[in-house]
Amino acid sequence: MATVAAQADNPGLQRGISWTGAFWIASGVPALVLFTIGTIAASVGTASWLVWTVSILFGFIQAFSYAEIAGLFPNKSGGASIYGAVAWARYSKVFAPVSVWCNWLAWSPVLTIGSGLAAGFSLSILFGADAAINTWQWTLVDLSFLKTGLALRINATSIIGAGFLLVAFAIQHRGISSTARAQIVLGVVALVPLMLIGLVPLLTGDLPRHNLWPIVPLSHDAAGHPINGHWDAGGISIFMGGLFVAAWSTYAFETAVCYTREFRDPKRDTFKAILSSGLLCIVVFTLVPISFQGVLGLDGMLSPGIANNMGVGQAMAGMIKAGPVVGNVIVVMMILALLLAIIMSMAGSSRTLYQASVDGWLPKYLSRVNHAGAPTAAMWTDLGFNLVLLSMSDYVFVLGVSNVCYILFNFLNLNAAWIHRMDRPGWERPYRAPTVLLGAGTVLSFVNLALMGVGADMLGKGTLYTGLVCVAMIVPVFAWRHYVTDKGQFPDDMSEDLHLRPEPGVRTGAGYLPHLTVVAGVVVIAVSHWLAVLP
Questions:
Q1: What is the pLDDT of residue 177?
Q2: Where are the alpha helices (DSSP H) in 219-320?
Q3: What are 503's strand-pairing partners?
Q4: Smallest Cα–Cα separation from 345: which of 67, 58, 66, 31?
Q5: What stretch of H or E contains 439?
Q6: Which of 52, 64, 256, 528 is the most buried if burial means most Cβ atoms within 10 Å?
């Protein structure tokens, strides 16, 4: 009874789920295929299905590193960036908050893009493309200095999208257990259309070989008409750009370790959650793109509405050759899949903000929770930020900037795995990744930087630099919290986690290697961006 009373007086995140709960919350990740499948298809051409297959395999290899570092800190929430920040903090006070900040800037825009797509899908089944409700808008701010045609505006998509955000917020407000139960219902309903889309064309044989072969990147002839390209410098750059875009979706099931603090048995549940989520994602991220490309072909993938993903719902509904009524039902189910992803993103990104506040990286107010243990202050921040992003006129550009942050997050945290090994060699690890997979994750961290350097601007000129500017915004935020609010001291719990004072079992064993790693990463980005050959 005393424990219950203490929790009531000082509420925090509660241990209310098992690995199956995290699996169902993370089951929103497969829906992320809807966010980028059109963009990749319209940019890469007939090699797009290979992009997805390679990318999800990269993500699966990386997941083992995240599973190990999550087990080191069973009392923390917020995902891999929080666990990785502890590794980097011993070597620089700047690297650690950058890791957490990049994670949030990568995850939070899922709310914007998902609710925008859900609104677009809704409008597509209710009104024609030329209907007034689809064409009116009220421009608020011209942002063409960032990208040509970019603006903040209010239109039907942003208004309906705001409604989806509020639904996600209401579900989250009741705590992690309630969220997990809602995700089970939505997960079952939402995964059905994705599995149908992936399996029906394969079972019916409706996949003409010429739509999947030869595996070559997209090119254009002298008149600007799309044709199959070659594996020259331009073709390789386009393929790498596709891998960059796909990473935002395929790597995302690492969110399954975001709820370690809320697992009833973190030692057992952490690895099971991320492994089961990864296997589900391998199935969806391979089958759906193959069927999508096999049915539509190059001409279909280049049709209007595919590149910005707004027409993907109707296109997928047509893939299973259902009538208009059943087709609309399929689109509605895909809207529920998007809602699943939105709820998942708010659950993960708000907990990243919460734990970053508790640990002393971000403002204190973000650590407030409600009676149900939901991090409501962080959720309100997420909601307000995304209501602004919803008014952006180009969600693909938002995705590109977000993905720059995500790749940097992956770089820092894949390398955090070997830093923890060197600094805490004797610590108990509920799951210890095979050394070869840990090494493979480190190699992929640099591969990802090269993909970003080459491919970021495929989504719009200036995407890379805009993303880097967004990353740099954490410096004044952290400086205010750490040096002004906390007078240069970390909160007590975080000081214990950092183990900055000499003690048995913890050391600064990596020496100069973390700093050398960052320098090497900067070189990879600069050289790959300089070598990029994009149309």
A1: 60
A2: 233-250, 266-301, 312-319
A3: 506
A4: 31
A5: helix 435-455
A6: 256
Q: Give the per-residue SS3 of 503-516.
A: ECCECCCCCCHHHH
Of the candidates 200, 190, 126, which has an alpha carbon nearest to the alpha carbon of residue 156?
Answer: 126
Tokens representing residue 515 in the block: 């700093």
Q: Which pair of tokens denotes residue 232?
A: 């020259």
Q: Rounded CA gap, 152 and 380, in Å?
A: 21
CA 212 to centroid of chain Cα atoms:
27
Note the Cα 317 to chain centre separation in Å: 25
**Residue 244 CB neighbours (<10 A):** 30
∠ CA 83-246-285, rounded to 5° = 95
pLDDT confidence of residue 8: 39
- Cα separation, 29 vs 340, whole angstroms: 8
Q: CA dihedral defined by 418, 421, 424, 429, rounded to 10 degrees? A: 120
Q: Count Cβ atoms below 10 Å from residue 383 Cβ, excluding itself.
A: 19
Query: Residues 304-342, buried b or exposed e (16+ Cβ, 10 A)?
Result: ebbbbbbbbbbbbbebbeeeeeebbebbbbbbbbbbbbb
Q: d(Cα 348, Cα 23) in Å, to the nearest integer?
A: 13
Token pair for residue 159?
């208004």
**Residue 117 buriedness (CB in 10 A; 0-12 / 13-18 / 19+):** buried
* Distant-in-sequence, close-in-space partners of 180: CB < 8 Å, separation ≥ 6: 16, 17, 21, 22, 24, 25
The C-alpha atoms of residue 221 and residue 210 are separated, in whole angstroms, by 19
Phi, psi of 220 (to 5 degrees): -140, 145
Q: Show the low-confidence residues of the chain (pLDDT under 50).
A: 1-11
Q: Are 76 and 262 in contact (CB under 8 A)?
A: no
| Ranges of H-type helices in 175-265 | 176-204, 209-212, 233-250
Cα–Cα distance, 325 to 383 (Å, whole number): 34
Q: Quick one: tokens of 190?
A: 């939402």
**The two structure tokens encoding residue 61:** 């290899």
pLDDT at residue 289 in the model:
96
- What pLDDT is attached to residue 80? 79
Task: Give yes or no for a contact between 456 and 403, defined as CB atoms under 8 angstroms apart.
Answer: yes
Rounded Cα distance, 159 and 258, in Å: 30
CB 121 within 8 A of CB 193: no
On the CB side of 362, CA atoms within 13 Å amount to: 29
How far apart, in whole angstroms, are the C-alpha atoms of residue 299 and residue 530? 32
Which residues share a beta bridge with 2?
Answer: none
User: Vertex 77, ends 74 and 83: CA angle to 5°?
Assistant: 70
Handedness of CA 203, 205, 211, 215 (dihedral sign): positive
Is residue 252 within 8 A of residue 66, CB to CB? The reply is: no
Neighbour-count burial of 236, counting CB atoms closer than 10 A to its CB (0-12 exposed, 13-18 middle, 19+ buried) = middle
In which residue are the tokens 């509405």 written?
Answer: 305
Cα radius of gyration (the chain): 22
The first and second tokens of residue 151, run together, are 């603006």
